[in-house]
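[Meeting: bench + compute handoff]

Bench side (C.D.) handed over the final construct sequence. Compute side (W.E.) agreed to return the predicted structure before the next meeting so the bench team could plan truncations. Sequence as handed over:
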Amino acid sequence: MKTFKQFIEQKNNFSNIINNIENMSKDTSKKINPESVANNVVNTVLDRLTGGSEGREETIEKIGKKFKKFETELPSAVNKFNDFINSGKIESGIGKLGKKFSSKK
């Protein structure tokens, strides 16, 4: 095992290691097209996450059904909420709460 002092003394040898790594990367990039590797990885990950093209189509159909349900049920939900706001229940409840707090003094 080398000591720290021995590593310091051999620091000039790092340039050879760096050159070797650079040459390896240049050779590898000539043999492998990085763009095709990236596309392959992205497509594989996307297919695994989404279940492939069939899984994506099923998801799109499910989302479409949810939006149709949303379109049909939202107006009635808004109307019910509006009726609740206009009913005076909120004001009544706040009034009751205020009376309880003021009576506890």
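W.E. noted at the follow-up: The chain has a mean pLDDT of 85. C.D. will use this when planning the next construct.
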